[in-house]
Amino acid sequence: MTSIQTVGVAGAGTMGAGIATVAARAGFKTIVFDTRQDALDRARGQTEAFLTKSEQKGKLPPGAAAATLDRWKSTTELSSLAQCDIVIEAVFEDLAVKHRLFQELGRVCPDTTIFASNTSTISITEIAGGSGRPDRFVGMHFCLPAQLMKLTEMSPGLETSTETFQRAWAFAESMGQKPVATQDTPGFILNYFLIPFNNDAIRLVEQGVAEPGDIDVAIKTALGYPMGPLELLDLVGMDTQKLLCEAMYGLTHESRAACPPLVRRMIAANRLGKKTGKGFHIYGDTKMFGA
What we know:
about 290 residues; alpha/beta; Rossmann fold; N-(1-d-carboxylethyl)-l-norvaline Dehydrogenase, domain 2; globular
């Protein structure tokens, strides 16, 4: 059993919306914060479409979509997160941005609130160091798309208390997630492999080796992946991939982690992926994955 009752999610982008869906669907009162009302409205609309489709497909019992949405609240006021037992940050992969957010959260949230970061590349210890409560800080990296994937990488910082880690672990399990313990190292488990792998797929396109659709079919067919790397990149977004690459390369100086030039050109052309309707593939809508 978990002692957590109310969950805060800071950031209403693709990851934040997915995490909020997971928490609300599991029965937790969930408060989603973003500074932009349009981001909150978009996340709410995507969540509603996803839950409605899940119910229609029989993946949720009748009435579950409405009940989940009733627990899913949004706000542009950071002070609304004061009632949360845990706040999960899902903002840009920028250490300074994360520090500012957690410093502000520290002024509004009680000492008992656990702070968690969904970062996939930045050191948990470094983020926790600017939070004001490094002993009550933990890494919780959800996989994209969070509303469908069960894996959550759980990473303690150097100062994370055993009690905090255990509470966060129990919370992950209570949401129906499959937590795995990782050390506080660049990329943890998943992105240590995934960022260079996805960049390799991008470079195949850059070099004209194959078309995006053929690369995706090859990977899905031969390796059994549910999504091809370029489909996944369209879901992640080119802007996010650039930030991931910069963070990972800055920490490891691994050449395969360096951002491919094609990513920057696609960003300049607003070919960000599914959220703009065009990336490596063309999309007829910008609904949440699975909707």
